[in-house]
Amino acid sequence: MYNILTLNKISETGLCNFSDEYNCATEIANPDAILVRSAAMHDMEFAENTLAIARAGAGVNNIPIDRCSEEGIVVFNTPGANANAVKELVIAGLLLTSRKIVPAIDWAKTLKGNGDTVPKDVEKGKSAFAGPEILGKTLGVVGLGAIGILVANAAATLGMKVIGYDPFLSEKGKASLNAGVTVTADINDIFTKSDYITLHLPLNADTKGLVSKSSIAAMKDNVRILNFARGELVDTNDIIEALEDGKVAAYITDFPNGALIGATGVIAIPHLGASTPESEDNCAVMAVNQVADYLENGNITNSVNLPAVSVTRNGKHRMTIIHKNVAGIVSSITSTLASENVNIDNMVNKSKGEYAYTMIDTDTDVSEEAIKAVTGIESVIRVRVIK
Q: Model pTM greater than 0.85?
């Protein structure tokens, strides 16, 4: 029986993909795996038997990745599962920032009680909320992952000129782009040529504050900025200043903070990007399937801290080893197993940054002594045998 801790409400559509061999609950002392959406985990202590954490979503800023890697815990996410939901909200954001829809609706509410004069009041006041059409305007897309590609293609279909930037764009991603999307190798093309800029990249030391005083200065006057990725990609003080002096016409974000709420030109949405039943179902199904495949077969798909390794099982037992990515360790593992009379039927080894994963199918039993011997190898973090 596998025990699964759920830190947030996880879609039943996903949880029902677990077999009867799984017990899911919101309170489990020593879980084999954890399913999470937005709960903060940085201060959590993990049980020794916890093997995996799956984030039902793409971002993993709420999970202590480095510590998980050191403890041999595989961290999964579900890239692309909520992509359509976010794309649809971004398209709505383009229109909201252009046509001043939110302030116009707020103003219309103030006419309550004016009775028969409302139609005349509307005609008199509507000019204050005029805004441009998006047709023919240039949209700069920073980050061409699952969401960025969908946004770029949708905007092109709506008649926008689209420029995309992503130094890590894969050939598969490039092939998925609409023929009308131009890819640039220089992010300054986004800043200098775009009427609208939308952000779809992860938050890290290199991307924090990507939109700040210096990059804003390079942008067109009256640029409109959309942030449905991570709040810290945009410097709050700098964007507010740019809105106040008219450099930026509007800023819409799915990540409000105290300073942004109520600020001139800001449309603050309460993190609704993936808040659709379809998205929650998709993320949960993907997270559950990835966790089950890892627990039952040792296969890794969509991990943020370990390499992707997926192999059909052969042999009697499967041994999985998480270790540091250092020279000579694979030969140390194989020689140690040989000395313990363990015959290797199939083996795969892959690395990701500082860490690596070795999966071995054996056609002999793996004794406790063999497990201890491999565990004792320097730089080995976790050893598991799946029967």
A: no
For 1-81+277-305, CATH number out of 3.30.1380.10, 3.40.50.2300, 3.40.50.720, 3.30.360.10 equals 3.40.50.720
Question: Measured between alpha carbons, how far is 250 from 239 in angstroms, rounded to an integer?
Answer: 9
Reported as a single tens digit per residue, the pLDDT across 305-339 is 999 999 999 888 999 999 999 999 999 999 999 99
What is the residue type of 137? K
The terminus-to-terminus CA distance of the chain in angstroms comes to: 14
Residue 34 backbone phi and psi in degrees, to 5: -130, 135
Q: Alpha-carbon distance 263 to 236, whole Å?
A: 10
What is the tens place of the pLDDT at every residue in 268-284? 999 999 899 999 999 99
DSSP 128: G
Q: What is the DSSP string of 224-288?
A: EEEE-S-GGGB-HHHHHHHHHTTSEEEEEESS--TTTTT-TTEEE--S-TT-SHHHHHHHHHHHH
DSSP state of 185: S
Q: Which CATH architecture has domain 83-268?
A: 3-Layer(aba) Sandwich (3.40)
How many degrees, rounded to 5, is the angle at CA 55 between CA 54 and CA 60?
120
Tell me the three state secondary structure of residue 374. Answer: helix
Is 233 in contact with 262 (CB distance < 8 Å)? Answer: no
